[in-house]
Amino acid sequence: MRNLLTDIPGLMVGHADNAALGSGVTAILFTEPATVSVAMLGGASGGRDLAMLAPEATIQAIDAIVLAGGSAFGLDAAGGVQSFLRERGRGFALGGQRVPLVAEAILFDLANGGDKNWGKYPPYWDLGYEAAKAAHAGEFALGSVGAGMGATTATLKGGLGSASSVTRAGHRIAALVAVNALGSATIGDGPHFWAAPFERDGEFGARGWPAAIGADDLRPRLKGTPGTATTIGVIATDAALGKAEAHRLAMMAHDGLARAILPAHAPLDGDTLFAAATGARPLGDSMAELTELGMAAALVVARAIARGIFCATALGFSGEKPAWRDRFG
Q1: How far apart are CA 88 and CA 127, in angstroms?
Q2: How far is Cα 44 from Cα 192, in angstroms, rounded to an integer?
Q3: What's residue 273's pLDDT?
Q4: Is residue 123 exposed (0-12), middle (13-18) or buried (19+ Cβ within 10 Å)?
Q5: Structure confidence at residue 227 (pLDDT)
Q6: For residue 131, what are the CA distances in angstroms to 123, 139, 147?
Q7: Strand segments (E) across the chain
Q8: Peptide bond preceding 263: is omega within 30 degrees of 0, i.e. cis?
Q9: Distance CA 278, CA 259 (A)
Q10: What is the pTM (predicted TM-score) of this model?
Q11: Which domain holds residue 238?
């Protein structure tokens, strides 16, 4: 196990980004179509082709998920991923054609100091294509890469994080999260992560919690401009789930977001989590095992969020929040 989303066999991850732009795209490709649903608990979520993921919708499996910066401009990224897949004969067969099915969520990184004067065409279609082209199984970078390139939080540079685990029944589960939060993933003004109780093997510094959490630590620490925040991500498992079960898994995974970021799910957040199931391992006791998968999903999401902050690096923009490692070593 690499402690990454690619610990789930059949998943590939690729990034494309531009440091001067201060934004990027992460593509998650399935070697075979996967069952996917989504839970959007932020008050202002943005995405593409999310309706097909509803439990009652006809489509049962899709080809890829995209996480992108750029706010609504970033929705073009799914088109680039779709084109890459179509070139390779992937997609839903319809009327003699194949239509790759790609869902996407976006985050707001337009005010982070990068050069957003891209001219007539936003760069996200090309970034999506390049992210899909770069997708591979195995190790991939975390921190200020892909969809996490331009991510920020109230107090520190945001980023892309991942974590994985195995349930008692033997199902693998993993998360990949782009952390662009309205609030903070750390406690007060110190180095300690809200997700500290769930850390494994020193994956985000092994600092634990502070000796005490005081009233000032609980004071709201928020970005100055509402609407500039969104945390988006993917939870994946090798378990065999239907769309309704995947939807429940996505909903339970949001518990991890709420445990790792304070506050979460605000009125102008776009907090969105996908849940994907490859179907490699059938459930035994379905309700008990799905419940444990949901708990494990919350924990890997919380860990992935802390890793995203821990691994981030500053981009050098004027007024930028420091990276965790720059501030705390």
Answers
A1: 18
A2: 29
A3: 98
A4: buried
A5: 67
A6: 12, 15, 10
A7: 11-18, 23-40, 47-48, 62-68, 92-94, 97-99, 102-106, 159-166, 172-179, 232-239, 272-281
A8: yes
A9: 27
A10: 0.97
A11: 5-316
